[in-house]
Design goal:
By secondary structure, the chain is of the alpha/beta class. The protein has four helices and 19 strands. The chain has a single domain, classed as 4-Layer Sandwich (Purple Acid Phosphatase, chain A, domain 2), CATH 3.60.21.10. 13% of the residues lie in helices and 31% in strands. The strands form five sheets. The chain has a seven-stranded mixed beta sheet with strand order 4-3-2-1-15-16-19. Strands 5-6-7-12-14-13 form a six-stranded mixed beta sheet. The longest helix is centred in the N-terminal third of the chain and has 16 residues. It is globular, with a radius of gyration of 19 Å.
Length: 325
Amino acid sequence: MAVLRVLFVSDTHVGIDTPSRRRRGAVEPIGDPHLTSFERALEPALSGWIDVVVHGGDLLAHSRLPLGVVDRALEPLRRVADAGVHVLLVPGNHERSDIPYPLLAVHPRIHVFRAPRTVVVTRGTSRFAFGGFPYYRGGVRERFRSLVAETRLDAADADARVLCMHHCVEASSCGVFRWRVTSADGAREPASSSFTFTSQPDVVRARDLPARAAVVLSGHIHRHQLVARDLAGRRLSTPVLYAGSVERTSLAESNETKGYVLLALAPGDGGAGRVVRWVFRPLSVEALTPFTGARRVATSPSPAIAGSGSLGIGARSSVAYPLRR
């Protein structure tokens, strides 16, 4: 039985400190921690352990970045593709549903979901289909089923299927930052809470997720999570994995561990396929200081996440899970 090894990364936001328009006398930012974390997340793909890299969207911080910044963001993916690994890229909302300077992404093994479509990757005698579409602006809730149908994922001649997208799904959650008053004189301290997505127009209904797929890999939410049950606690027909962002981009993410996901996919379940194992790999990233939002300090992976476990991919700390809960 052939097993496909997938690296899933998302919301890299390269160029977050670069203005969309250069101002006279502006100083070019020195280094980009988002790009650095992105390159570190791709290390297993450059070591011969990975067959497919999926980027879940928001490769870039915004859509009007200078050509040089876009080139630097795509360069790590081109290196991965040069190493023989297929790269699947979902344009996110920050890119306004398309990747600027499209010629920079021209490569026989880089596949950009500029429109709904399906890419089939072969390993051994098994065929793995990845359907995807760019971020849909204007209320994905009512359009989701038709977008999935337009990918023709279900019609693909394949032994396993994965849907790739950049959207929120019911029961997914994100952090919310607020200031909490701690005394009568108005003293405040930072506090974070959680927001759960329900029936908003830009939230996908859980019941609309395709049943004939092993997993949905989605970007857009910066908190790493597995969504396996709907708002009523019922098990989803297909679970949704969010890799989360590779760096903290707001104070609401101050306490979140950042990283990427590794998956092992296998044929089965009537062509849907199955996830044999998945692993969340934490990254040592930089944290925003809650009081200023500017000064950064180095932090290490959360010990609650880091642990033992392996897909046979590298030797760094990880924790392995069965997919369905």
